[in-house]
């Protein structure tokens, strides 16, 4: 990607400087950039660490995870602004899920009890309930494809499935040990397509993600999302957690199906 | 050589000007997932398109009295549906136009969509869903993705 960015800049320079700028100058401009990226390294241990974590993740029968995330968004003035969010999931496989997404601008919940899915926005006090498929995996797909809703922390539901093939990973390497709070996690760096990402994985025989950082390298602004996770694996979760009961004064509304034009 | 150098500096300046425009075109939203649910289409799920249509008509009529009629129709709809990280009731990074475009619609077009309601609306339940009556205009709130939008509708009767 670095190479591509450089090439892009060079071609712009070549265009603008056409006539006066010789080949020598173009080279000089190139030299002022960071050294050219070396060929991608794909360390087996980095791939295997991801696979071990993914297998453990998929083997969980139930879990609670809380996550804090900082997500960049470019403002109109060209400054990257960070937005913080707290996400909590309570999941009992195969067919129960609760999530809350809280930030300074929204406070949303979703409930899935194996039959119905409800989206509830506390701030505006609206909720929408739709018929849901039979499993969490199908729910993830249906919400995305039918309603244009992408679950937060989607990767937690995709690692270890066909949606996250390790063959897509072009570069993988072990960065080193990292101390996150009281935990020591191993840090890995991966690249696939236009996505540069780093994953911190907990140690021991039941590895789980500690932290994830993602950069869209195709975006010149390089906005980043960083999320940390705290786990309660195999947590006992009361069945009532997944059942939505409309609070007083909450108003039912419809959940629009995403139109075909919106899904490309 | 001196001339060549200066042309190079010029070229570099031009690059730095161009880069933010490219970033703007990409929307500048961070990806929040590595993998995509829909692999077949190779779709970037995170790449929400944000279409802001601001129709601000400002009519100043000066006669004996000074009458200002501001008629702002703010249509701000994220066509992919909002993300989880988006706001419920206002835009986190609003343009000046969006901020000032408090909806003051006296006769909105049926079917038009807005992200915010004018003040003083009353909810009305009909056939299992909620409407909002704001003066003479009726809105039907709907979830589009995870964000609420309001569609101007005929009175639900």
Keywords:
heterodimer; A: 264 residues; alpha+beta; outer membrane lipoprotein receptor (LolB), chain A; 12-stranded mixed β-sheet; 5 helices; 38% strand; disordered N terminus; B: 157 residues; 5-stranded antiparallel β-sheet; two-stranded antiparallel ribbon; 2 helices; 34% strand
Describe it for me?
The complex is a heterodimer of chains A (264) and B (157). Chain A is of the alpha+beta class and 264 residues long. Chain A has two domains: 2-31; 44-262, Clam (outer membrane lipoprotein receptor (LolB), chain A). Helix content of chain A is 21%, strand content 38%. Chain A has five helices and 13 strands. In chain A, a hairpin with a 5-residue loop joins strand 1 (62-74) and strand 2 (80-92). Chain B has 157 residues and is α+β, with helices and mostly antiparallel strands. Chain B has a domain at 47-153. Helices cover 18% and strands 34% of the residues of chain B. Chain B contains two helices and seven strands.
Concise account of the structure shown:
The complex is a heterodimer of chains A (264) and B (157). Chain A is α+β, with helices and mostly antiparallel strands.
How would you summarize the topology of this molecule?
The complex is a heterodimer of chains A (264) and B (157).
Chain A: H1 2-16, H2 23-31, H3 44-59, E1 62-74, E2 80-92, E3 96-102, E4 107-112, E5 116-121, E6 126-131, H4 136-147, H5 155-158, E7 171-180, E8 183-192, E9 195-202, E10 209-216, E11 224-233, E12 251-252, E13 254-255
Parallel strand pairs in A: 6-12
Antiparallel strand pairs in A: 1-2, 1-11, 2-3, 3-4, 4-5, 5-6, 7-8, 8-9, 9-10, 10-11
Chain B: H1 2-25, E1 50-62, E2 66-78, H2 96-100, E3 113-114, E4 122-126, E5 129-134, E6 137-144, E7 147-153
Beta-strand content estimate of chain A = 35-45%
Adjacency order of strands in the biggest sheet of chain A: 7-8-9-10-11-1-2-3-4-5-6-12
Please count the beta strands of chain A (DSSP E, at least 2 residues each). 13
The strand count of chain B comes to 7
**Count of helix runs of chain B:** 2
What share of residues of chain A is helical?
A: 10-25%
CATH architecture term of the largest domain in chain A:
Clam
**CATH structural fold name of the largest domain in chain A:** outer membrane lipoprotein receptor (LolB), chain A
Question: Distance N terminus to C terminus of chain B?
Answer: 80 Å
| Main beta-sheet strand count, sense and barrel state of chain A | 12 strands, mixed
**SSE topology string of chain B:** HEEHEEEEE
Strand numbers in spatial order across the main sheet of chain B: 3-7-6-5-4
Mean pLDDT of chain B: 63
Q: Which residue ranges of chain B are poorly predicted, with pLDDT under 50 across at least 5 consecutive positions?
A: 8-26, 40-82, 89-105
* Unreliable stretches covering 5 or more consecutive residues of chain A: 1-32
Taken from the alpha-carbon principal axes, the silhouette of chain A is globular
Task: Indicate the radius of gyration of chain B in whole angstroms.
Answer: 22 Å
H-E string of chain A? HHHEEEEEEHHEEEEEEE
Q: Which CATH C-level class of the largest domain in chain A is it?
A: Mainly Beta
Overall number of domains of chain A? 2
Overall mean confidence score, pLDDT of chain A: 88
InterPro entries (chain A): DUF2092 (IPR019207), LolA/LolB/LppX (IPR029046)
Pfam families (chain A): DUF2092
Keywords (chain A): Signal
Protein name (chain A): DUF2092 domain-containing protein
């Amino acid at each position: 990607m670095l190479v591509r960015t450089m090439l892009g800049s060079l071609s712009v320079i070549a265009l603008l400087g056409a006539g006066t700028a010789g080949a020598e100058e173009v080279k000089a401009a190139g030299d002022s950039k960071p050294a050219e990226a070396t060929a991608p390294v794909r360390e087996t241990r980095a791939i295997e660490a991801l696979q071990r974590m993914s297998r453990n993740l998929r083997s969980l029968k139930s879990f609670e995870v809380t996550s804090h995330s900082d997500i960049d968004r470019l403002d109109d003035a060209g400054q990257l602004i960070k937005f913080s969010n707290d996400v909590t999931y309570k999941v009992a496989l195969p067919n129960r899920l609760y999530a809350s997404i809280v930030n300074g601008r929204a406070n949303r919940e979703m409930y899935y009890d194996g039959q119905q899915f409800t989206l509830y926005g506390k701030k505006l006090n609206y909720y929408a309930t739709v018929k849901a498929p039979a499993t969490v995996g199908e729910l993830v797909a249906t919400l995305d494809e039918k309603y244009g809703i992408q679950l937060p922390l989607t990767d937690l539901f995709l690692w270890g499935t066909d949606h996250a093939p390790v063959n897509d990973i072009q570069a993988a390497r072990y960065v080193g040990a990292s101390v996150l709070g009281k935990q020591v996690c191993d840090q890995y760096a991966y690249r696939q397509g236009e996505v540069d990402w780093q994953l911190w994985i907990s140690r021991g025989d039941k590895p789980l993600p500690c932290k994830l950082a993602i950069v869209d390298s195709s975006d010149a602004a390089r906005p980043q999302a960083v999320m940390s996770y705290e786990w309660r694996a195999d947590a006992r979760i009361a069945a009532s957690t997944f059942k939505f009961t409309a609070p007083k004064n909450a108003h039912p509304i419809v959940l629009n199906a995403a139109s075909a034009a919106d899904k490309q | 050589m001196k001339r060549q150098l200066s042309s190079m500096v010029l070229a570099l300046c031009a690059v730095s000007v161009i880069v933010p425009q490219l970033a703007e075109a990409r929307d500048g939203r961070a990806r929040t997932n590595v993998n995509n649910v829909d692999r077949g289409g190779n779709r970037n799920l995170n790449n929400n398109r944000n279409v802001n249509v601001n129709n601000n008509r400002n009519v100043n009529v000066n006669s004996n009295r000074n009458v200002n009629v501001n008629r702002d129709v703010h249509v701000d709809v994220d066509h992919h549906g909002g993300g989880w990280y988006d706001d419920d009731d206002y835009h986190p990074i609003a343009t000046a136009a969006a901020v000032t475009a408090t909806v003051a619609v006296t006769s909105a077009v049926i079917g038009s969509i807005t992200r915010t309601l004018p003040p003083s609306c009353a909810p009305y339940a009909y056939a299992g869903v909620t409407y909002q009556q704001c003066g003479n205009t009726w809105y039907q709130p709907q979830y589009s993705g995870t964000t609420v939008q309001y569609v101007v509708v005929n009175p639900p009767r």
